[in-house]
Amino acid sequence: MEITNVTEYEAIAKEKLPKMDQWTLQENRNAFARILFRPRILIDVSKIDMTTTILGFKISMPIMVAPTAMQKMAHPEGEYATARAASAAGTIMTLSSWATSSVEEVASTGPGIRFFQLYVYKNRKVVEQLVRRAEKAGFKAIALTVDTPRLGRRESDIKNRFTLPPNLTLKNFEGLDLGKMDEANDSGLASYVAGQIDRTLSWKDVQWLQTITSMPILVKGVLTGEDARIAIQAGAAGIIVSNHGARQLDYVPATISALEEVVKATQGRVPVFLDGGVRRGTDVFKALALGASGIFIGRPVVFSLAAEGEAGVRKVLQMLRDEFELTMALSGCRSLTEITRNHIVTEWETPRHLPRL
Asked: Which reaction does it catalyse (predicted)?
């Protein structure tokens, strides 16, 4: 079957992966569909430049790889395949704390710009060790997940009695007795989080992290302008507007709906990124028009990885790149700086011209 868009990988992957269905999950997608374009015409678009600089690192496009846990559950090569695909595409990969490959193993796949997603464990020595290892392995930034003091009620995990298969471990915690996830009556992951992840996590910990590493810290999981302002005061180098793939608190807004409020609150002081619901190049354009400096994709990577391994992830990144380039051309934008708020219209705006009664 010839795959022509990212969502087609989902159908193939669904045969191999458990399913989920929550309101915010659908809303992450649907909210994009309600944003319309205002394309500009008769502009010479023979040359399109999609390159951008993220925290000082030049990448080929504003499309990056979000952290997704336990990728070897999707494919035997797991994070290795994803790292190689992201590197080949000239973009950034974010490695999950709960990866089935360690920071050192991912670094060993070759050159590439990589960020490390961090959960803060109750044992701060473990966190310190992990951050130092990531830094030593050449990782360039930390994406600190702040929306998971407790795991959301993931009904599909409970139904599936989710746990890691016996042949896999959370590689970054091997040898610390934290790499294993035990069987549980409901979700093994929920029990693991309850036992290990620190619920007391607060803004002072964001400041503490800066004392143990020179890597810039992105705060991942911001959905309001208020928190965006506090994040900047706490020293965040950037913000990722995220609702954790809609798996934490249901009925939070879609990330694309929360994006503009966060961007306005930051007043351009730090870059704002988005994850959640991006399946098309048109989605990437809409996010940038609303002020994002770039987007991260999670599920499309896992779906394509499950379907076709490294080749699948490469193809997803290429398809999104091609679609985004075409969207730019058809909107009359030759570079990312030319993408403006005027190129889209959203449902929450007042109509530009009220009809005469």
From this structure: glycolate + O2 = glyoxylate + H2O2
Q: How many whole angstroms separate alpha carbon 122 and alpha carbon 151?
A: 15
Contact between residue 91 and residue 112 where contact means Cβ atoms under 8 Å apart: no
**Separation CA 272–CA 253 (nearest Å):** 17
Annotated binding-site positions for FMN: 67-69, 96, 117, 145, 220, 242, 275-279, 298-299
pTM of the entire predicted model = 0.89
- CATH architecture assignment, domain 6-346: Alpha-Beta Barrel (3.20)
Give the active site residue among 75, 244, 343, 353: 244
Catalytic (active site) residue 244: yes
Residue with tokens 């590689």: 171
Q: Which parts are annotated binding residues for glyoxylate? A: 119, 154, 244, 247
Q: What is the pLDDT of residue 34?
A: 94
Six-digit token string for 347: 């449902």
Q: In a 10 Å sphere around its CB, with 0-12 CB exposed, 13-18 middle and 19+ buried, how is residue 250 labelled?
A: middle
Closest among 22, 21, 27, 29 to 300, alpha carbons compared: 29
Tokens read off for 195 = 């036992």
SS3 250: coil
How deeply is 88 buried, as exposed, middle or buried, from its count of CB atoms within 10 A (0-12, 13-18, 19+)? middle
64-100 confidence digits (pLDDT tens): 999 998 898 889 899 999 999 999 999 999 999 888 8
The pLDDT tens digits for 100-134 are 889 999 999 999 999 999 988 888 888 999 999 99
Residues composing the chain:
357
- Annotated binding residues, written as ranges, equal 67-69, 96, 117, 119, 145, 154, 220, 242, 244, 247, 275-279, 298-299
- Residues 127 and 123: their CA atoms lie apart, in Å, by 7
